[in-house]
Amino acid sequence: MTNYIEVKAEILAIGDELLYGQINDTNSHWISQELDKIGVRVIHRSTVGDNSESMLAAFEAAEKRADIVLMTGGLGPTNDDLTKPLLAKYFDCEIELVPEALEAVKTFFEKRGRELTELNRLQAHLPTKCTYVPNVVGTAPGMWFEENNTLWMSMPGVPHEMKKLMKDFVIPKIKEKFELPVIYHKVIKTVGIGESWLADLIKDWEKNLPQNIKLAYLPSLGQVKLRLTAFGNDYDELQANVETQIDLVKPLIEKYIYGYNLESLEESIGRLLKQKNKKVALAESCTGGYISHLITSIPGSSKYFQGALVPYHNEFKNSLLNVDKTVLKNHGAVSEQTITLMAENIREQFNADYGLASSGIAGPEGGWAEKPVGTVWIACAMDGRTISKKLQLTQDRMLNIQLTAVATLNLLRLSILEETE
Amino acid sequence: MTNYIEVKAEILAIGDELLYGQINDTNSHWISQELDKIGVRVIHRSTVGDNSESMLAAFEAAEKRADIVLMTGGLGPTNDDLTKPLLAKYFDCEIELVPEALEAVKTFFEKRGRELTELNRLQAHLPTKCTYVPNVVGTAPGMWFEENNTLWMSMPGVPHEMKKLMKDFVIPKIKEKFELPVIYHKVIKTVGIGESWLADLIKDWEKNLPQNIKLAYLPSLGQVKLRLTAFGNDYDELQANVETQIDLVKPLIEKYIYGYNLESLEESIGRLLKQKNKKVALAESCTGGYISHLITSIPGSSKYFQGALVPYHNEFKNSLLNVDKTVLKNHGAVSEQTITLMAENIREQFNADYGLASSGIAGPEGGWAEKPVGTVWIACAMDGRTISKKLQLTQDRMLNIQLTAVATLNLLRLSILEETE
Lengths: 421, 421
Hints:
- The structure is a homodimer.
- Chain A is built from 16 helices and 17 strands.
- By secondary structure, chain A is of the alpha/beta class.
- Chain A folds into three domains: 7-177, MoaB/Mog-like domain (Molybdenum Cofactor Biosythetic Enzyme, Chain A), CATH 3.40.980; 182-260, Alpha-Beta Plaits; 265-420, CinA-like (Maf protein), CATH 3.90.950.20.
- In chain A, the strands form four sheets. Chain A has a six-stranded mixed beta sheet with strand order 2-1-3-8-7-6, with helices on both faces. In chain A, strands 14-13-15-16-17 form a five-stranded mixed beta sheet, sandwiched between helices.
- In chain A, α2 runs parallel beside α7, α3 crosses α4 (83-90) and α11 (265-276) packs parallel to α16 (397-420).
- β2 (41-48) of chain A pairs antiparallel with β2 of chain B.
- Chains A, B: This is CinA-like protein.
- Chains A, B: It comes from Belliella marina.
- Chains A, B: InterPro entries: CinA (IPR050101), CinA-like_C (IPR036653), CinA_C (IPR008136), CinA_KH (IPR041424), Competence-induced_CinA (IPR008135), MoaB/Mog-like_dom_sf (IPR036425), MoaB/Mog_dom (IPR001453).
C-alpha cells in the first residue's frame, strides 16, 4: 500500500445568511470535491456567522486541526463583512493599500464603464502579512497567508469567483507546497439507465475490483457517473490499472456510456457532431429553450448548432413551424403525429442534419386523464427517417423539463451513432 | 430593545462521505431554515468525519456554544457509524436493548416483507440516558438527550427521515422547552445595481436602522438582495417596524427593486405581464435559449410567453427573422441596427406586446479589437418604440450568457413599468 504523509484541510464558510438558511453553501461541497481529487484530506468543515468572537475561535480551532485552511465569504465591501479585519487581527498585522490591487479594481470598473466608489477603494487595502491574489472576475481579492505553520486562503463567497481563485491559484499552490499522494480518478459517464440497473449489470465486475481501486456511484438527473479512484505511488501504474478495469466493464454497459471525466452530455454530442460534420436544430415546446441553452453553453457550439424555435402555442406550431392545423386539432400538441412533424419541419427550416423536438405537459397544471402532467413526446428527424419516443415523467415542472432535455439529447446521441456506424 | 433570551443552536453533520464531497449535505441548510422560522438562532454548523476523536471534540465544542445540538448521520447499521457508541461514551452511560424500538424495526421489515438482520436488531439498542424517538420511515431511531444543560438530538442522515423527525418531534419539543423570541425577516430583491453602489445609496438609512433590525447584503449574478432581520417579542410589531424601514429605503432605490422575499426576477416579470395582460416573445442569439428557459421555468408562463426564435447564424437572422441582409452586412450581427430589427421583427412574428432580443460575443472565441468577447447588444421592442442597450461583459461564456439574461429581463421589467405608469 501507500506511504505518503496525509495533508489535512479545513473548510470555513462565513456568513449569517448561511446560518439563517437564506443562502445554501454550495462552496464547501465543491471545495471538498476539488481537494479530494488531488489527495488532500478534508477533516473538518465549519460555518460561522458575521461575528468576531466566533470567527476568531474558528480560525484558532482550524489552525489546531489542519495544514490548510480555506475560507469563503465575509469579503464584500459592506460593513457586515469582517473576514479581512479579523485576519489582520489574528495574524497581528496592519491593513494597508496594495497599489497593484487598487489598479486591478480600477481596471475592473473602467472595463464596465463605472465609477469607483470609496467602498471599492477599501477593497484594495489588505493585511500586510498576506499575499495579494488577484480576483479577475470580481472586486474582492483573494488573500493567501503562510502563518503559524499553516496555509490560509480567504476567498469571496460568490461561487464563480471562488472557483476561479481555487483553479488558478489555490490548487496549484497546494500541489507546489506538499508531497501529495498519487491519486488517479476516472469517471465513466452514463445516460439512459438507472443506478440500480447499472449496479446489477456490473456487480460481478465490481466484486473483483483490486483493493486500491474504489468505485463510487454518482447519480444525477437521468444520468449516473461511475467514479474509479486508485491510490498508490506511481501515476502511470495507477492509470494502467484503472484503464484495464474500464476495458473490462465497457462491454457490459457500452450503449449507456457517452463520455469520461468532465465531459458533459452536451459536450459529448458536440464532439460527435463535429466529428461527423453534422448540424442540429431544435423545436422546443415543453422544454422552452432549455435544450438549446444546454447545447449553446458549450464553447464552439455555433459550428454544429443551427438554431431553435420555441413555438409555445399551437397557433405558432402552425404559423411558424408549418405543423398541419388538422393534425394539431385531431391529435393535439402532445402526440406522436405532432412531434414527428415538429422534428421534420425544424430540420428543414434550419437546413440541419438532425431535427429535434419536444412537446409535453410540464405541469403543475394542464394535464387530464388521457394525458396527465408529465406526459412528453420527443423526436429526432434525420435523413430518411424520424424516431419518436413517449416519456411518462413526474409532477414537478422543473424536473420534467430537465429529464426531457436529457432524454432528447440521448435520443440525438443514439441516432448519430446508429446512423453513422 | 428586546428582552428575550436568545436560544442558540448548533448543527452537526457526520460522515466521511460529506467531507470527501461524495454526498452533498443538504440537511444542514434545511435545518437552518426550519430553526430560523421559529426564532432559534443557528450560531455554528460543523461537518466531521466518522472518527471518534473529531466527533467527541465536536460534541464538546457544540455544548460550549449552544443550547441545542442537532446532529445528522453516523447512525447506519454498519461498523463505520459511530454516533451512538460515542454519545453513550460522552454521556457516560450503557447501551441497552429498547423493546419498543425492536418492535418498530421488526414491523418496518415485516411491512416490506424482508428478513430482520442481526445488524438491524442492533439498531434497537440505545444509550440508556436517551429518549427513544421512533423513526417511522426508516430503521435508525432518533435519540433525544437532555444532558449537561443542553438539548441534543441525533437523527439519521437520510433527508426524508431527518425531516420527519424534525417536524414530528424536534420542532414541537423545542417550542415546548423555550420561550422563543420572535424573528421577522424580509428580503428586498434588487437588480441592475452593484452591491457597493447600492450600499452607497442607502448608507445613511443603514446607519439609522433601529438596533433590533439587522441588514445583510446578499449579492448574486447581476442582483443584490437586502435582508432585514428584526428580533423581538411581538410579530406584528416587528413586521410594522420592518415595513416602516422599507418605506424609508424604497424611494432611494425604487427603480432597482423588482420584488420581495422568495420572488425571482422571472417570477416578478410574469406577475407584471399578467397584471397588465401583456405578452412577450424573444429572439435569442448569444443567450441561445437561456432567457426563454428562465421565463418558461415559471408555472403558468404560457399565459404571457408566446415563444422564441434562436437564429444562431446570420443566414437565419435573415431567412427566419427577416433582418435585412444589408444591415447584417454593413453593421454585423452585434450592432444596434441588427438588435433593433431582431426585437421588432420577433414582436411582430409572435404577435406579442414586447419583443426582446439579444446578440453578442459570448466567447471564449469570436471577438476582435472593435468587438471583444463580452460585447453584447440587447433590445426591447414595444408599441411605437424600441429601447436598445450595449453591454460590455466578461471573458467567461457562461457568465456572459447569465448576465445578459438578467440585463434583458431587467430591460423588459423597466419597459413594462415605464410604458404602463
